[in-house]
C-alpha cells in the first residue's frame, strides 16, 4: 500500500525524547492529512501567518538511475500549493500562466531559499528546461512576495505580479543552502549540474561543485531588486558538499552563525562527510573533532537553543545515512547509504564539545527532502532558532514536518523503477511537551588517527608525516593552499595498525603556508606546514 492509512498513523503514538540543562521535555509527532495536498519533496517554502506556501520540488520519489528516466519532467511540481495546517485547508494554482523564465525555475528541484520579511528568495534549482532543451541548473534569483501571493492564490487572482528575477551565473546552484547572518546572505555549497543524471559518470552530464560560500547583500524595495557586495570563499576539500543540512546556531560565546552538517560527497570518495563546518560573519571553521554518524542527507531539521544552559541542539528527522543504530544501540555501517527512520540530535555544549544521540524514530523510512516549518507563534531566540527557555510548562505545537520521500526499503537505488518510493502526503504536527524522560543512545565516535606530525617544518621539496593508526586503514592525503585550493592529492594503500610514516613529495610548490589533511574516509586530521 503506497499511502499510510490515517487510522494506522494516528495509532502511532510515538515520542521523541530530549534532555536539556534547565528542563526536560519530549517532542511528540502527530500525523494528519489535508484534502488536496499532493506529495512533494525537495521543495521550497514560505510563510504568512498560519499559511505555508510550497513551491518547486518534485511529486515523485527517489530519482531513477537510468539517464532517460532520471528527473523526468513528469515528476516536476507544476503547481504552487498553499496549506493552512490549523484549519486543514488547501489551495493550489498551476504555474502554466507564468513567464517561461519563472515557470521553469519554479518546476526545479533543490532550490536554495530564504524568507526575509515579506519576501521569499529562491535561488537556482535543477530540472528540465524546455527553453534550453536540456536539464539545467537555473542561474536566477527570484523574489516572491509571499503573503500577497498566498492571498492571490486563495482568492483566485492573477499571480504573475508577485515574482521578480535577477539573472546571474553566481546563482546557478542546486542542493546548497541559502541563509543569512546580519544583513549578508550566504549561499553555501551545492553544485551546478547540467544534463541527465548518470550514476556511471557517462557523457550525459557536467557536474561542478561550487566548493564555496558565496556572500552577497540584496537591495530590495519591493520593486527594484539588485545584488551587491558579492564575495566568494573557497575550500575545495571541506565545502565540496551538497544535499545536506545547514542550521542557524548560537555558539558558546554568544555569537550567531551557521553550521553545515554532513552532506555528499567527499572529495576523494563517494561517501558522506562526517565532519561539520561552522560559519561566522568573518570566517569559517572546519570541525574535525566531531563526526556526525546519523542523518547525512537533507531532511527536515530544527534548531533549539537553551540559553540558560548554553546548549545548542540540532535535530534531524530521518532521511538518508551511512550509519544507523540498531535496536541494541550498536552502530551499523552501510556504505550503500540507505534510507533511515532515525531522529538524531547533535548537542553543542558550553565548552564547544558536540555529542550525537538517537532520540527517536519516524514511523517508517521517510524524511529525505522534507522540511520542518516553525509554527508562527513559537518563540525564537534568533531567526530559525527556537528558544526553549521561553516555551511553556505545557504542551505546545512548535511546527510541522512537511513532505519528503517515503521509501519501502532501506536500499532501493539499484532496483528503483519508480514504484519503491513516493513523495510524502502525510504531514506531522510537532509538539513540545514537558515530560520526565529516560536517556537514549549516544553515538560513540571511535578515533583511528592520532599523533599527526610533519617534519621537517619548514620543508623544501618533501616532508614526512608521522601518525598512529588504531587499526588498519587506507589513507588519503590532501594539500591545500591558504586560498582553499587543492594543490596536491595522494591516495595511499591500506596501512597496518600502529605507528606509520609517510614520505610526501612536494614538487614545485611556491613558498608559503599549506594545510595538509589526512583522512581515513571517516575522520580527518589537519596540520600546517611551511614550504621554503
Name a few traits of the molecule.
3 helices, 4% helix, 532 residues, disordered N terminus, single chain, globular, Immunoglobulin-like, 43 strands, mainly beta, 3 domains
> Within the largest sheet, what's the order of strands?
28-27-24-23-32-31
Can you count the helices?
A: 3
The helicity comes to: under 10%
Radius of gyration (Å): 23 Å
Strand content: over 45%
Major sheet details: 6 strands, mixed
Number of strands: 43
Shape: globular
Number of domains: 3
- Low-pLDDT regions: 1-23
Class inferred from helices and paired strands = mainly beta
End-to-end Cα distance, whole Å, is 66 Å
Instruction: Quote the average pLDDT.
Output: 93
Please tell me about this protein's structure.
The chain is mostly beta strands and 532 residues long. It has three domains: 209 residues, no CATH class; 194 residues, no CATH class; 83 residues, Immunoglobulin-like, CATH 2.60.40. Helix content is 4%, strand content 48%. The strands form twelve sheets. The protein has a six-stranded mixed sheet, with no helix packed on it. It has a five-stranded antiparallel sheet with strand order 1-2-36-33-30. Strands 3-4-5-6 form a four-stranded antiparallel sheet, with helices on one face. A hairpin with a 5-residue loop joins strand 27 and strand 28. The longest helix has 10 residues. The N terminus is likely disordered.
Amino acid at each position: 500500500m503506497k499511502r499510510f492509512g490515517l487510522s494506522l498513523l494516528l495509532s502511532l503514538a510515538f515520542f521523541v525524547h530530549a534532555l536539556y540543562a534547565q528542563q526536560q521535555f519530549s517532542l511528540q509527532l502527530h500525523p494528519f492529512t489535508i484534502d488536496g495536498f499532493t506529495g512533494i519533496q525537495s521543495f521550497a517554502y514560505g510563510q504568512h501567518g498560519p499559511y505555508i506556501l510550497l513551491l518547486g520540488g518534485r511529486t515523485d520519489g527517489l530519482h531513477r538511475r537510468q539517464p532517460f528516466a532520471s528527473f523526468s519532467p513528469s515528476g516536476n511540481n507544476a503547481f504552487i500549493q498553499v496549506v493552512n495546517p490549523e484549519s486543514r485547508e488547501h489551495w493550489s494554482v498551476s504555474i502554466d500562466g507564468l513567464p517561461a523564465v519563472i515557470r521553469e525555475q519554479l518546476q526545479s528541484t533543490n532550490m536554495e531559499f530564504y524568507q526575509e520579511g515579506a519576501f521569499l528568495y529562491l535561488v537556482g534549482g535543477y530540472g528540465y528546461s524546455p527553453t534550453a532543451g536540456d536539464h539545467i541548473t537555473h542561474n536566477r534569483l527570484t523574489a516572491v512576495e509571499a503573503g500577497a501571493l498566498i492571498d492571490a492564490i486563495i482568492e483566485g487572482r492573477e499571480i504573475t505580479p508577485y515574482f521578480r528575477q535577477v539573472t546571474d551565473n553566481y546563482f546557478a546552484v542546486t542542493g546548497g543552502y541559502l541563509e543569512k547572518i546580519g544583513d549578508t546572505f550566504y549561499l553555501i555549497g551545492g553544485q551546478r549540474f547540467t544534463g541527465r543524471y548518470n550514476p556511471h559518470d557517462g557523457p550525459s552530464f557536467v557536474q561542478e561543485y561550487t566548493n564555496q560560500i558565496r556572500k552577497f547583500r540584496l537591495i530590495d524595495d519591493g520593486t527594484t531588486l539588485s545584488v551587491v557586495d558579492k564575495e566568494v570563499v573557497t575550500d575545495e576539500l571541506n565545502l565540496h558538499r551538497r544535499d545536506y543540512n545547514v542550521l542557524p546556531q548560537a555558539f558558546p560565546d554568544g555569537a550567531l552563525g551557521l553550521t553545515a552538517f554532513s552532506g555528499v560527497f567527499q572529495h576523494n570518495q563517494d561517501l558522506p562527510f562526517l565532519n561539520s563546518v561552522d560559519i561566522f560573519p568573518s570566517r569559517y571553521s572546519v570541525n574535525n573533532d566531531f563526526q556526525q554518524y546519523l542523518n547525512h542527507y537533507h531532511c527536515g531539521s530544527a534548531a533549539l537553543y537553551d540559553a540558560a544552559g548554553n546548549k545548542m541542539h540540532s535535530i534531524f528527522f530521518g532521511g538518508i545515512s551511512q550509519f544507523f543504530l540498531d535496536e541494541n544501540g550498536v552502530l551499523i555501517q552501510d556504505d550503500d547509504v540507505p534510507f533511515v527512520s532515525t531522529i538524531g540530535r547533535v548537542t553543542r555544549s558550553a565548552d564547544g564539545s558536540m555529542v550525537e544521540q538517537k532520540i527517536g524514530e519516524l514511523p517508517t523510512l521517510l524524511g529525505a527532502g522534507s522540511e520542518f516549518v516553525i509554527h508562527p507563534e513559537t518563540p525564537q531566540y534568533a531567526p530559525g532558532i527556537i528558544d526553549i527557555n521561553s516555551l511553556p510548562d505545557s504542551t505546545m505545537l512548535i511546527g510541522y514536518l512537511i513532505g519528503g520521500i517515503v521509501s519501502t526499503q532501506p536500499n532501493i537505488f539499484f532496483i528503483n523503477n519508480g514504484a519503491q518510493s513516493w513523495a510524502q502526503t502525510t504531514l506531522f504536527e510537532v509538539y513540545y511537551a514537558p515530560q520526565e524522560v529516560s536517556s537514549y543512545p549516544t553515538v560513540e565516535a571511535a578515533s583511528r588517527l592520532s599523533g599527526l606530525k610533519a617534519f621537517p617544518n619548514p620543508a623544501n621539496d618533501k616532508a614526512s608525516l608521522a601518525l598512529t593508526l588504531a587499526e588498519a586503514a587506507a589513507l588519503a592525503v590532501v594539500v591545500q593552499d591558504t586560498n582553499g585550493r587543492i594543490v596536491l592529492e595522494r591516495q595511499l594503500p591500506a596501512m597496518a595498525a600502529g605507528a606509520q610514516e609517510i614520505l610526501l613529495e612536494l614538487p614545485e610548490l611556491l613558498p608559503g603556508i599549506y594545510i595538509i589533511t589526512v583522512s581515513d574516509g571517516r575522520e580527518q586530521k589537519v596540520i600546517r606546514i611551511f614550504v621554503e
